[in-house]
Design a protein that fits this description.
15 strands; Aspartate Aminotransferase, domain 2; Aspartate Aminotransferase, domain 1
Length: about 400
């Protein structure tokens, strides 16, 4: 008799977005004429940059020609031209990452979720709360013990480690989804020192690094001394360059990074991950990798920055509105997310319903990202300028009246 992996039964119902969709549906049935403004889901709305589209078309043309056609890519790690472009990109903000330490993926979600395959089931996993749900779900699926580090109002939603508590695998996300907070170099150094002391590995999710404008803030964990001995960095082109539907990301595993056997023997993580990928992943399509490489050209950087600036102007407007309304928030400056405290002590879902019913604006209730999100609410800057302006106008009118 076939048996199920019972760890899957321990997963929480994917309650958040299903419940949001249910409430929206019910509202629309009752108010079919009302226009909703959606500021909940973190998906981009601008099209791919022209330079990216051109490069992808050229890649397709090469696939249409017998002389330049490409089948499986030999290494499965991504084409060298793309990995070299990414290495150059790191260099542009002062980080040395060898192209040979970079692996191309079909997005950050896959690597965040799959990387756990190579680590022992008996590791203790430390995850900040609230967090992007993939970290908790992928470790629950494989049955690992999870402990949490609190991100809350007191620490500006930037959880720090407790040195007296041991953990082996640590997830950090900066700029953070959902809270928009960004670790400083000093804070990340504390995490790196903690990981080195406990011989732990940090999975550093830098999916939103391109939204950092403050030059004093780290865009990569490898800006921190010692990180190459304890960290893996996972990046994405989804939000940086509008690749949510195109799918491309990259992961950096320093060549010297080790994990250990029960007997304490060191095992090279890069080698084991490549072995895992060799069995379960056949790479990203050639035209997509051509488009991804175009992101890192001078023109590509210019064009994709325009998109980021567009979103960040929305973020600024949301932050300014919160300032005017005396609403506490994090994010919005170096992040496309604004994480705000629900006014008048409302609960997350109460505030969700209030905005939906009164001004037809949809956000995401914070408690969907973990218990510390209760009473908090996430708005995203990924909508259009017009919709963001209209939503903020409605919000001001609504809350000024209270
Ligand atoms: N990491 C974080 C923190 C995210 O918010 C997201 C997407 O929302 C991802 C990873 C996934 O990105 P991708 O589209 O590259 O899979």
């Amino acid at each position: 008799m076939i048996r199920i992996n019972e760890n899957f039964l321990s997963l929480k119902e994917s309650y958040l977005f299903i419940e949001i969709a249910k409430r929206i549906r019910a509202y629309k049935e009752q108010h079919p004429d009302k226009q909703l403004i959606r500021m909940g889901i973190g998906d981009v709305t601008l099209p791919l940059a022209p330079v990216v589209v051109e490069a992808m078309k050229k890649g397709c043309d090469e696939m249409a020609d017998k002389e330049t056609f490409k089948g499986y890519e030999d290494s499965g790690r991504g084409y060298e031209f793309l990995r070299k472009s990414i290495s150059g990109y790191y260099k542009s903000f002062g980080v040395e990452v060898d192209f040979d330490e970079i692996l191309i993926s079909d997005g950050a979600k896959s690597d965040c979720g799959n990387i756990v395959d190579i680590f022992g089931i008996d590791n203790t996993v430390l995850i900040t709360d609230p967090a992007y749900p993939v970290y908790v779900d992928s470790n629950t699926m494989s049955g690992r013990k999870i402990i949490y580090a609190n991100s809350n109002e007191e620490n500006g939603f930037a959880a720090m480690p407790d040195d007296s508590i041991c953990s082996d695998l640590i997830y950090l996300c900066s700029p953070n989804n959902p809270t928009g907070s960004v670790y400083t170099k000093e804070q990340l150094k504390i995490w790196v020192d903690y990981a080195l002391k406990h011989k732990a590995v940090i999975i550093f999710d830098a999916a939103y690094e391109a939204f950092i404008t403050d030059k004093s803030l780290p865009r990569s964990i490898f800006e921190i001394d010692g990180a190459k001995d304890c960290a893996i960095e996972i990046c994405s082109l989804s939000k940086t360059a509008g690749f949510t539907g195109t799918r491309c990301g990259y992961t950096v595993i320093p060549k010297g990074l080790n994990a250990y056997t029960r007997n304490g023997d060191a095992v090279n993580i890069f080698k084991i991950w490549c072995r895992r990928q060799g069995s379960k992943f056949n790479g990203v399509s050639y035209p997509v990798q051509c488009g991804a490489a175009a992101v890192f050209t001078e023109e590509g950087q210019k064009q994709t920055k325009e998109g980021i600036n567009y979103y960040m102007n929305n973020a600024k407007l949301i932050a300014k509105t919160c300032d005017e309304l005396n609403i506490k928030y994090t994010g919005g400056i170096n992040s496309p997310y604004i994480w705000l405290k629900c006014p008048n002590n409302m609960g997350s879902w109460e505030f969700f319903d209030y905005l939906l019913n009164e001004i037809q604006v949809v956000g995401t209730p914070g408690e969907g990202f973990g218990p510390n999100g209760a009473g908090w609410f996430r708005l995203t800057a990924f909508g259009s300028k017009e919709n963001t302006e209209e939503a903020m106008k409605r919000l001001k009118k609504l809350l000024k009246k209270d």
